[in-house]
Write a structure and sequence with these properties.
The chain is α/β, with parallel strands linked by helices. It contains 13 helices and 8 strands. It has a domain at 7-135 and 214-294: Alpha/Beta hydrolase fold, catalytic domain (Rossmann fold).
Length: 302
């Protein structure tokens, strides 16, 4: 089990499931949400610096992944927001928090900001495309999009084919999506593969993909109605991955979004360029706190 000085790991019952949550520090809540195929461990390279920034840091393994309980439902990103709001309540935190999300975790973070804008004091999205706001282009294989979306979304197929080949598949995945200097050792890749090993664990994790069309529908309808995010937003992409495409796709929904491109990084920003990610996040958090201090924001209880 991963241990971090000053942090505690808790199993928290929330919204009909149980999440494993690493938490520590003192101050305003800062929630870090991981992507696929990772766990909350992807934030370990940035935790020491962030822990000194005056925040209580909350790092869950998302629904159905890693140390969290297996699940066969509830993967809609809007529903997962309730998973996380329940975590904050259980820890005696919130409801207001800064939220940082990478990949799938960024999709959940976006839903949180859309559904409960008064609770999200700052929203940082790292290297993803948001369903309904740009993900469709990334999913369009005929126009150069990524092949894996349709593969992962097909019921039963992906888990049956990857089962027994987790180590080889994950090694290929990280090698393809990381930048030129893959920071993940074979031991680290194996640690992630172990968290997803077996048909049951793989199937549980693919639930995050199998709701993407539903996620896109609600996000697109929200944007089409002229809604916009009201909190400070940072959109960061790896130079060798999403780049500034995320920020561009969010302009209409978050007209004051800040764009950051992490030089030399592929998809796994926190592990590939931890120092740069910490620098960008801390600067963003300082700016978000200054913005919030100057704009009264009513946060409903609970």
């Amino acid at each position: 089990m991963t241990t971090v000085p000053g942090f505690t790991r808790s199993a928290i019952a929330t919204n009909g499931t149980e999440l494993s949550v690493l938490h520590g520090g003192r101050g305003e809540p800062l929630v870090l949400l991981h992507g696929w195929p990772q766990t909350g461990d992807c934030w370990l390279p940035v935790l020491p610096a962030l822990a000194e920034s005056g925040h209580t840091i909350v790092v869950p393994d998302l629904r159905g992944i890693g140390r969290s309980a297996l699940s066969d439902r509830g993967f809609e990103k809007d529903n997962q927001v309730e998973d996380l709001r329940g975590v904050l309540r259980a820890l005696g935190l919130g409801p207001a928090a800064h939220v940082v999300g990478h990949d799938i975790g960024g999709m959940v973070a976006f839903s949180w900001a859309r559904l409960h804008p008064g609770e999200v004091r700052g929203l940082a999205l790292l290297d993803l495309a948001v369903p309904g706001l740009g993900l469709e282009r990334a999913m369009d294989v005929a126009r150069g999009g990524r092949w894996h979306f349709g593969f992962f979304m097909a019921p039963r197929v992906a888990e049956l084919l990857i089962d027994g080949h987790e180590d080889e598949f994950f090694a290929l995945w990280y090698a393809q999506l990381a930048g030129d200097a893959n920071p993940l050792s074979p031991q680290e890749v194996s640690r992630y593969a172990e968290a997803y090993r077996s048909v049951e664990r793989l199937r549980s994790s693919f639930g995050h993909y199998r709701t993407l069309l539903d996620d896109a529908e609600v996000n697109a309808a929200w944007a089409a109605a002229g809604n916009q995010l009201t909190m400070p937003v940072l959109a960061a992409g790896g130079e060798l991955a999403a780049g500034d495409r995320l920020a561009t796709s969010l302009r209409s929904a978050a007209p004051h979004v800040q764009s950051a491109v992490i030089a030399g990084s592929g998809h796994f920003l926190a592990e590939e360029r931890p120092s740069e990610v910490v620098e960008r996040l801390l600067a963003f958090l300082r700016g978000a706190n200054a913005y919030n201090a100057g704009h009264e924001r009513v946060v409903p209880p609970g």
